[in-house]
Amino acid sequence: MPYRRSRPLVPSRRIAYLLAREGASAEIAERLWEVLGLHTPAVERDESLPAAFYLDASGVGQSYGSEADWCLALLAETPAASLDQVKLGLAGSKFAAWVAAQTIPTGQAQRIIQEPDARFLAPLTVDWLPLAKEPLRRLHLLGLQTLGQFAALPSTAVAEQFGPEILPAWRWARGQDQRPVRGQRCQLVTASHLFDAPDMRSENLLAIAAYLAERALQDLPVDRHTWAIRQVKITALTESGVQLDAETWLGSTPGQETMTHALARLIARLDGADTGIVELGVALWGLEPAPGRQLSLMEAQETAQRWRQVLEIMNRRYAAQLLRPELADPDAPILTERYALQSWLA
Questions:
Q1: 2 domain-assigned
Q2: Do 100 and 54 sit in the same domain of this protein?
Q3: What pTM, to 2 d.p., does this model score?
Q4: 276 pLDDT exceeds 80?
Q5: 244 and 208, same structural domain?
Q6: Is 315 helix (H, G, I), strand (E, B) or coil?
């Protein structure tokens, strides 16, 4: 008797978004990163906010008993854990998880979306989409007030009305955000120097701090060129036993000049020491490996606008030779069948 082999069950994709309170310091963000890494295989920082993270939550319910228990365990260990300081949204995609965290009612700290993302997003306003003002204005002008109404449009109509660059937002509204959580590992390296005699001269302290930063980089467990420094902190111990701390945020992959300027600013904050400094320490927080620059939806729109300006200039000069792509079949699997070239003047 013929039989059909059953397919193995594939666990559904689950993604969480954790948002800390506004004004969270860089130190709180780094501590959050370390704690979150204990409860999920992948943590990705949302670069648009001081302390916000995407988490891979696939399969956490099996390990913690339920997704709700996982959320409670996560919130209980966060340094800023309180109902008013941390919000955690859990859904099937990045966009839906982000919206879930942003729409948590007052007095609650978590929101778990069990229904399909498209159904959860459908009644919400299109203003949740990360679009520029003009596309949002046109959506409202056309009577498309909710994400469900926008998602119901055919892809061809969306591309023709708003441009192909809006299609990612259309897919997000349909619950088809396929962006993965790109996990990165947070690391901390330190180095310190004990002075033979107390020193208060800024130029000497800066030279020692630069040397310590360079020495700390040598201790990295991976190639230093693949490591992105995000924050630098200086700790100084005065002769009278007072500890002075100063830190600053560096952003992604700063160069040597940026590091030197940052150290100089931190050293300037130590001028309040009433006695000489007997010990100086430098700590560097960062990511490994160094993340590549990922274009956001807003950046993609700005890039498209600049390209349109360039094309218009070329059209005035080379109208006869200039071609433009025309969306023929957005669902075609082969790129050459998806677009057709036509004269720019057609």
A1: no
A2: yes
A3: 0.58
A4: yes
A5: yes
A6: helix
